[in-house]
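Our preliminary data section would be incomplete without showing what the modeling component actually yields. Below, a chain of 222 amino acids is followed by its predicted structure, encoded as tokens that our downstream tools consume directly.
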Amino acid sequence: MGLRRIIAVRHGESEANVAYRLAGDRPLVYARGDDEVGLSELGRVQSAALGAMLARLPAGEAPELVWCSPYRRALDTWAVARATWGAQPPVTVDARLRDREWGALAPYNEAAIAERFPGERARWRAEGEYRYRPPGGESFGDVAARLRGVLDDLRERAEGRRVLIVAHDAVVLVLRHVLAATPDADLSGLAAYAPILNGSVSTWDAEDGHPRLLDFNTVHHL
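Predicted structure:
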């Protein structure tokens, strides 16, 4: 049978999202660890709106299980949404749902990378967003590999059930690629579906074992 439904959510706006937006094209070094970044006030509002949306779903469409990234902004998104929804589905925190890792470049925005690591910035531009692997970090192909493992476990542990995934933009974007069984050589095609918006919802009907995309990156509930 497989999974009945997958609902994937990007976390609400984070404090780092705000800092990067305010920095614009100016170099930024964001010292807080990626796993420690919390939600902004808007992010909490978005998370509450997600919870309200879940509460409006018919009983036959609401998630029965939750799988969540271990990063604070994802955990906080789920905590706020759960409080608004009022339901208590079982939760699995899975490190494979973490955001794409940037390794040695993690604290820096692109302007700071260009300033401090011009060789890496040139390699990033030459290889392209979807092939580039930062020193000590991950490419989008690496993210795809770990998401395939998550889906294998979900098919075994959540057969016949509806699952809510609370994670990050890279996870939601690559999940589309993996569920469509697209070859990793075609990862650059994901550019057509980016950016994944904060608080957005993407839904697949997977009841027949062949995931069918119902909607992607929607924010009408916000």
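The CA atoms of residues 104 and 135 lie 6 Å apart. The chain is about 40% helix and 15% strand. Preliminary results of this kind motivate Aim 1 of the renewal.
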